Amino acid sequence: MISTNLDQAVALLNKNQIIGFPTETVYGLAGNAFSDVAIKKIYEVKKRPSFNPLIVHIKSFDVLDTVATEIPEKAHLLANAFWPGPLTLLLKKQPTISNLVTANLDTVAVRIPNHPVALELLHQLVFPLVAPSANPFTRISPTKAEHVAQYFENEIDMVLDGGTCMAGVESTIVGFESNKVIVYRLGALSLEAIEKVVGPVTIINKNKKNPKAPGMFLKHYSPKTEFILTRNLQSEIDWFQDKKVGLLLFNTIQPNFELKNQFVLSKKSDLNEAAANLYEALHELDKLNLDLIIAERFPEYGLGITINDRLERASKN
Ligand code: AMP
Ligand code: MG
Questions:
Q1: Of 121, 118, 52, 107, the residue nearest 85 (C-alpha)
Q2: pLDDT tens digits for 165-215?
Q3: Is the CATH number of domain 227-314 3.40.50.11030?
Q4: Nearest bound ligand to CA 28?
Q5: Structural domain spans, the chain
Q6: Distance 52 CA to ligand 1 centre (A)
Q7: DSSP 299-313
Q8: pTM of the full predicted structure?
Q9: Ligand 1 pocket, 142 CB below 6 A?
């Protein structure tokens, strides 16, 4: 099931099968972007609602026009600065892109992943890949081949192993309206980095119940264990003294608390490292059979903003 055999991956994808595949953000469930058969399998296996569109992964900027058209100047600037990388652009779709990919929208989400195995695979194919994150709908995203195998052992034939994802959270999604840049999903590329290239952006990702940007569901990325996010760690720990509690922490171990039930995401206070470790820690905490996971709120800058967004979604039920 888990394998590094690229030829096998190519053969399966050419037969319109779907596979788990590595990117620098999280593992994806990948299929031929031009095959409705493959696309339908992805929705089915993921149990993803059909109104939640997929991201198209391309191998290079040269083939962008097979997928999208009318590329705004600011999209050029951003692609130039950050591709390959964890930035997804919402662009006007080409008519050849199936409505199944875009959930009937006239825009398509596109990026070039920055992962050597993903790029090598894409270069061996004559089509782009659609690939949503390889987790069942609402569950924690996978950052290792093993996570994907555990989720889908009976549904897919192969997970192409590319090691642990370096970024560890999903791509940042931006779109364009008039001359404005709009952030639809916070992700592995920080707002500060984007604003350096195109100036101030508008964020509409937060806390929308029935969002225009599909997929921005409030409940998302959830562990099975009850989960709370707090600014005041100590008082929550005291309040839940009688429960079996796990902790998700930024940089410091909690003294007088069982060591094996706490996960520090970055001892050196590096928010990129913390983001890379986030889902792995959630997966591990979720396996401990706890009554409750308490997460502390992260600093509100850089990828701290993305981490808080994911923790907020994990805490909704
Ligand atoms: P995932 O691949 O699971 O990280 O999810 C991809 C996300 O991309 C979806 O949940 C949507 O929020 C977003 N997306 C994809 N295509 C579009 C689009 N055309 N317009 C707006 N959002 C999109
Ligand atoms: Mg997802």
A1: 118
A2: 999 999 999 999 988 999 999 999 999 999 999 999 999 865 554 445 555
A3: yes
A4: 1
A5: 2-69+84-167, 227-314
A6: 6
A7: PSSTHHHHHHHHHHH
A8: 0.94
A9: no
